């Protein structure tokens, strides 16, 4: 499996207009390894480019390179937990302001990374 890296795709930094959201999830080391492998889009239908640079996971829209989520992880014993989540709030880049939607979208993306299935 190829590990996604920042230079594999066009990326823009998280804008100053961002906010934190809360998502409490704990992963095994094996699940965390799948998360940190990320995603490199292979087709136009693939909407996300995701890569990991410790301790942050970066989730970018593939067509624009805009950073929508950043997730910081912390090791806790034998597990890895989400310590912090930042979400883009620049209305010119990301029009959503619904907290619950952002939590659901991020959960779906992380579940995809863990289970290798993306439901758009």
Would you kindly provide a written description of the structure presented here, covering whatever features stand out?
With 120 residues, this protein is an alpha+beta fold. The chain has one domain. The chain is 22% helix and 32% strand. The chain has helices at 29-37, 99-115, and strands spanning 18-21, 26-28, 48-53, 56-61, 67-76, 79-88. Strands 1, 2, 3, 4, 5 and 6 form a 6-stranded antiparallel β-sheet that branches. Strand 3 and strand 4 form a beta hairpin. The longest helix has 17 residues, at 99-115. It is globular, with a radius of gyration of 13 Å.
Keywords:
120 residues; alpha+beta; six-stranded antiparallel β-sheet; 2 helices; 6 strands; globular
Summarize the structure in short.
This protein has helices at 29-37, 99-115, and strands spanning 18-21, 26-28, 48-53, 56-61, 67-76, 79-88.
H/E series:
EEHEEEEH
Residue share in β-strands: 25-35%
Largest sheet: 6 strands, antiparallel
Helices and strands: which structural class? alpha+beta
Q: How far is the N terminus from the C terminus? A: 22 Å
**Tally of separate domains:** 1
Helix content: 10-25%
Number of separate strands: 6
Q: Helix count? A: 2
Low-confidence regions: none
Rg (C-alpha, Å)? 13 Å
Give the overall shape, derived from the CA principal axes: globular
Round the mean pLDDT to the nearest integer and report it.
93
């Amino acid at each position: 499996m190829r590990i996604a890296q920042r230079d594999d795709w066009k990326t823009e930094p998280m804008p100053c207009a961002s906010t934190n959201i809360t998502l409490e999830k704990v992963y095994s080391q094996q699940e965390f390894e799948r998360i940190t492998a990320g995603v490199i889009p292979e087709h136009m239908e693939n909407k996300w480019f995701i890569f990991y640079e410790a301790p942050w996971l970066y989730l970018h829209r593939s067509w624009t390179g805009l950073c929508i989520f950043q997730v910081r992880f912390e090791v806790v014993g034998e597990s890895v937990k989400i310590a912090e989540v930042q979400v883009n709030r620049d209305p010119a880049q990301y029009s959503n302001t619904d907290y619950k939607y952002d939590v659901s979208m991020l959960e779906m993306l992380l579940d995809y990374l863990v289970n290798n299935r993306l439901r758009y």
